[in-house]
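Weekly modeling sync, notes
Attendees: S.R. (lead), two postdocs, one rotation student

Agenda item 3: backlog of single-chain predictions. S.R. asked that every request posted to the team notebook include the full sequence so nobody has to chase files. The rotation student volunteered to paste the first one in as an example of the format we agreed on. Action items at the bottom.

Example entry:
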Amino acid sequence: MSSGDELASAAATGDAERVARLLQDGASVDAVNRFGRTPIQVMMMGSTAVAQLLLGHGANPNVQDSTGTSPLHDAAREGFLDIVRILCSFHANPHLLDMWERRPVDLARERGHQEVVAFLQSL
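Predicted structure, as returned to the notebook:
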């Protein structure tokens, strides 16, 4: 398993201890896994500890997949306000558009996540 796969796997399962260990051992925070995605793109959305670790080690909060979806799009769509706040505190761009020309706030609004909508509109 490549270091990108290992770190992405740890991030996806919310294993903050393993993420910290891999980063400490020199894993590249923006290494792509075998599916072409970075750990921040596949992290368990409810894991604030993993988000803090990855972003604190320089993960790019504005990385977009082939559809233009960023981690902020994902967090906003699913209603993870704490993750939205953390991403924004590390300069995630709330104005990025996906391929359907939707911003993260648009996805939060579609799903009825009013706290997320209010936060993103306050930026």
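Discussion: group reviewed the output briefly. The domain at 64-123 is CATH 1.25.40.20 (Serine Threonine Protein Phosphatase 5, Tetratricopeptide repeat).
Action items: rotation student to repeat for the remaining queue; S.R. to check formatting next week.
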